[in-house]
Amino acid sequence: MRLALERIGHAFLGRAVFENLTLNLDRGEVLALVGPSGCGKTTALQIAAGLVDPLRGRVRRDYRRHAVVFQEPRLLPWQRTVDNIAYGLAARGVGREERHVIAAARAAEVGLHPRDLDKYPAELSGGMRQRAAVARALAVDPEVVFFDEPFTAVDVGLRRVLQDLVITASAREKFSALFVTHDLSEAARLGHRIIVMSGRDGSILVDRTIAGTPGARDDRAIFEMVQGWMHEPAFAELFDPDRDRA
Ligand SMILES: Nc1ncnc2c1ncn2[C@@H]1O[C@H](COP(=O)(O)OP(=O)(O)OP(=O)(O)O)[C@@H](O)[C@H]1O
């Protein structure tokens, strides 16, 4: 077990997001977290990543290094791509030359061209910026990666490429990942397990292993899996979050 949220309760301005959230992330596992907008997925991720302190409950972490990939790339505009990718390494005291070697290797893994390394974020396309954000996360050799809807803003074709990057990298590097997404097909492509959060009280409606292995599921299998999920009441809230709301 890499990470455990134990009986977490959280509220903003006195309004509860969830009262009693418990979830585990296993070693090497990509856990897809889905739920209707506003149910608390990002809050759960931020608590798991230590970016927000929960009001109640406990977070147990059994790892040394993690990284976060946000929906927007959050690159430093005044730094070249190579230095953005190496950002976490600089914070860890890795020397400049070694940082650049590692950053160049990570950039190549996410499909950035060597000439992109000297560019500033404003000179990159949106997709290239998000590739750089993934490279920056992987550069620190994280044992856990938190993805908060990282590919929502990129176009469909590139989204698949970036999903494949995550699948390949997680299989190669054996990191665990908590992957928040709105997209059931994305969850079905890259997850080992899926959790569905309720829009009513943030409780967990579904927690199940996804059949097959990420990267080995073909499009038809993914399509059929998602079709099957969509017929389950627990998933229906994703499409009609006000259904049972008082
Ligand atoms: N900083 C904040 N201050 C006040 N309320 C907040 C804050 N952050 C989140 N909330 C509220 O907490 C609830 C959960 O938000 P959260 O962003 O975790 O949901 P989500 O499931 O990730 O939503 P989405 O899928 O739309 O990104 C929402 O009602 C939101 O308005």
TrEMBL record:
Keywords: ATP-binding, Nucleotide-binding, Transport. GO terms for molecular function: ATP binding. Residues 3-224 form the ABC transporter domain. It holds the Pfam family ABC_tran. Belongs to the ABC transporter superfamily. This is ATP-binding cassette domain-containing protein.
